[in-house]
Specification:
The chain contains two helices and no strands. With about 160 residues, it is mostly helical. It has one domain.
Amino acid sequence: MSILPEPRVLIMQALGFLIVLLVLRKFLFKAAGEVFEARQRDVESYYSAAEQDRKAAAELKADYEQHLANIESEMRAKITEAAKEAQTLRDEIIAEARQKAEQALARAEEQIGREKDKAILEIKTRVADLAVNAAAKLIGERLDDEKHRQLVDNYIDELEGIAK
């Protein structure tokens, strides 16, 4: 017995193997190749879609971060503006209060001046009356009131001139 089969059997088996191989290649390998290629296209399309989604997400993130930065910048600007307005309003209120205080002080000084003038006039009148009465008692007779007042007013005016 020989290890090698008969050449005819060997040729038939090789021929059968080639026919099976051609049939498999024609029907099975071609269909399997198409399935593999379709699957590869699907995987590639998934990867490209994922890459596009990643890029879109990165763009959205960048836009969002830019938007947040703009909002923060606007917020800081509004806070600064509000602080400036508050300072301006504070300065205006202080200036208005000072002006009102100065006006009140001026009115008070005017009132004091009027009261002082009124008091001085009243004192002059009383002094004149006292002087007239004293002179009348000393002299023993009454002089004309108008003349006495004139003499006393002149005397008071002289006194004021000396005091100044």
